[in-house]
Design goal:
The chain is mainly α. Helices cover 30% and strands 0% of the residues.
Length: 76
């Protein structure tokens, strides 16, 4: 048997890195394919219109000199 050769401390080591395989485009998540124009959901649009209506009602009350409505105490 031959004695095993140990690399010297000055020896240069080469490391090979394998390239990744490309992903299978057929197996992609269907959620990732739904790109396109970004827009608000229907519920977000509905809530926005509700907020705007509430602001308009508050503005009208202020014009008529009525006091602000009492805050809801449902959660307390």
């Amino acid at each position: 048997m031959m004695p095993s050769a140990k690399p010297s401390p000055d020896a240069v080591q080469t490391v090979s890195i394998m390239a990744r395989k490309p992903r299978n485009p057929v197996a992609r998540s269907p959620l990732l394919r739904k790109g396109g124009v970004h827009r608000k959901s229907r519920s977000a649009e509905r809530m926005q219109s509700k907020r705007e209506l509430k602001e308009e009602a508050e503005d009208e009350r202020e014009k008529q000199g009525e006091p602000d409505a009492e805050p809801d105490s449902e959660g307390q």
